[in-house]
Amino acid sequence: MKTTLQLYSNTPHPQVEYWSVCKVEALFETPFLELVHRAALVHRENFNPQAIQLSTLMSIKTGGCPEDCGYCPQSARYQTGVQKQELLNVEDIVEKAKIAKSRGASRFCMGAAWRGPKPKDIAKMTEIIKAVKALGLETCGTFGLLADGMAEDLKKAGLDYYNHNLDTSPEHYNKVIGTRGFDDRLNTLGKVRKAGLKVCCGGIIGMNESRKERAGFIASLANLDPQPESVPINQLVKVEGTPLSDAQELDWTEFVRTVAVARITMPKSYVRLSAGRQGMSEEMQAMCFMAGANSIFYGDKLLVTGNAEEDCDRLLMEKLDLEPETTENRYLSQNS
Ligand code: SAM
Ligand code: DTB
Ligand code: SF4
């Protein structure tokens, strides 16, 4: 019996198919188990389905944000009880990054509650990114809208990924956020791509959007050319004090459908089962992995809210025979 190793590349891939909203809506309407099955096939064609990429998240500048994002506990406009914290120093961040690495994370994602960084913030971030990168971790930053030249400075410092979410469909966007527009987000994503950074771009499900708007959101992501390397699909974490704290509950099947549709439309992207896992059963998470999710936030905290506990995640991965993704198991061994 001959065993061959097949490499699935992580390099950016051009968008090969245009996804109209109607076409994505039609995918959403596929019978549930058929949709999950199709997504699982696409997953296997492009990735080792047993490997889950682990990213650990840290809030490096917390709260007091001037923006009005209706989902966000860190906006200064809402009373959410989040304590404001200025940009942490490099030692504190490196200490957390070391812990994340020792627990098996391959990427360290740093989040800042800014509309966008100021030049002095970029100077500090440069030092922080260099220090985290020196630990042998992949680095990801999410700092909001970028001015000209900032993406290049972050890239030079060693940043691998920039996370900047479209968050929802163009039609729904203004109902959720008033202080910036969908096009502002696209503009920063263009700068990130031009600087040669990898793109992490996704959004939030469960913000009272219609199914058509969910389809419009996925179509917007899938029509980015090249498509994002990483696509975080967050389930809204409802935080008391935010305008969306009483958003309508979404049935779990609709969330799984969204993951499956993301997998089918963005076959070579990592689809991350992101915020909201704390409220998901093991069975629902398993269904998301079946539907093509292959990345999670790993660690007891997201930015300011809780995440599924590390111990529970380790156990769940054991039960499902999943392994943290490494450079070795990214290859799918095939017997021929
Ligand atoms: N301030 C920067 C920005 O908005 O791009 C970076 C940090 S912001 C917290 C990053 C992302 O977190 C948002 O784009 C949103 O998708 C997600 N997020 C924020 N609050 C959330 C919540 N309550 N539930 C789910 N996702 C959330
Ligand atoms: C993303 O798409 N989700 C993460 C990360 N990118 C920065 C943030 C989730 C935040 C959840 C609520 C909180 O803890 O603030
Ligand atoms: Fe600020 Fe980002 Fe939260 Fe919006 S999502 S309020 S920009 S931290």
From TrEMBL:
<keyword id="KW-0001">2Fe-2S</keyword>
<dbReference type="InterPro" id="IPR058240">
    <property type="entry name" value="rSAM_sf"/>
</dbReference>
<comment type="function">
    <text>Catalyzes the conversion of dethiobiotin (DTB) to biotin by the insertion of a sulfur atom into dethiobiotin via a radical-based mechanism.</text>
</comment>
<feature type="binding site">
    <location>
        <position position="272"/>
    </location>
    <ligand>
        <name>[2Fe-2S] cluster</name>
    </ligand>
</feature>
<comment type="similarity">
    <text>Belongs to the radical SAM superfamily. Biotin synthase family.</text>
</comment>
<protein>
    <recommendedName>
        <fullName>Biotin synthase</fullName>
        <ecNumber>2.8.1.6</ecNumber>
    </recommendedName>
</protein>
<dbReference type="Pfam" id="PF06968">
    <property type="entry name" value="BATS"/>
</dbReference>
<keyword id="KW-0949">S-adenosyl-L-methionine</keyword>
<feature type="binding site">
    <location>
        <position position="109"/>
    </location>
    <ligand>
        <name>[2Fe-2S] cluster</name>
    </ligand>
</feature>
<feature type="binding site">
    <location>
        <position position="200"/>
    </location>
    <ligand>
        <name>[2Fe-2S] cluster</name>
    </ligand>
</feature>
<keyword id="KW-0808">Transferase</keyword>
<comment type="subunit">
    <text>Homodimer.</text>
</comment>
<feature type="binding site">
    <location>
        <position position="72"/>
    </location>
    <ligand>
        <name>[4Fe-4S] cluster</name>
    </ligand>
</feature>
<dbReference type="InterPro" id="IPR006638">
    <property type="entry name" value="Elp3/MiaA/NifB-like_rSAM"/>
</dbReference>
<keyword id="KW-0479">Metal-binding</keyword>
<dbReference type="InterPro" id="IPR013785">
    <property type="entry name" value="Aldolase_TIM"/>
</dbReference>
<dbReference type="InterPro" id="IPR002684">
    <property type="entry name" value="Biotin_synth/BioAB"/>
</dbReference>
<dbReference type="InterPro" id="IPR010722">
    <property type="entry name" value="BATS_dom"/>
</dbReference>
<feature type="domain" description="Radical SAM core">
    <location>
        <begin position="50"/>
        <end position="277"/>
    </location>
</feature>
<feature type="binding site">
    <location>
        <position position="69"/>
    </location>
    <ligand>
        <name>[4Fe-4S] cluster</name>
    </ligand>
</feature>
<keyword id="KW-0408">Iron</keyword>
<comment type="pathway">
    <text>Cofactor biosynthesis; biotin biosynthesis; biotin from 7,8-diaminononanoate: step 2/2.</text>
</comment>
<keyword id="KW-0411">Iron-sulfur</keyword>
<dbReference type="InterPro" id="IPR024177">
    <property type="entry name" value="Biotin_synthase"/>
</dbReference>
<feature type="binding site">
    <location>
        <position position="140"/>
    </location>
    <ligand>
        <name>[2Fe-2S] cluster</name>
    </ligand>
</feature>
<keyword id="KW-0093">Biotin biosynthesis</keyword>
<feature type="binding site">
    <location>
        <position position="65"/>
    </location>
    <ligand>
        <name>[4Fe-4S] cluster</name>
    </ligand>
</feature>
<dbReference type="Pfam" id="PF04055">
    <property type="entry name" value="Radical_SAM"/>
</dbReference>
<keyword id="KW-0004">4Fe-4S</keyword>
<dbReference type="InterPro" id="IPR007197">
    <property type="entry name" value="rSAM"/>
</dbReference>
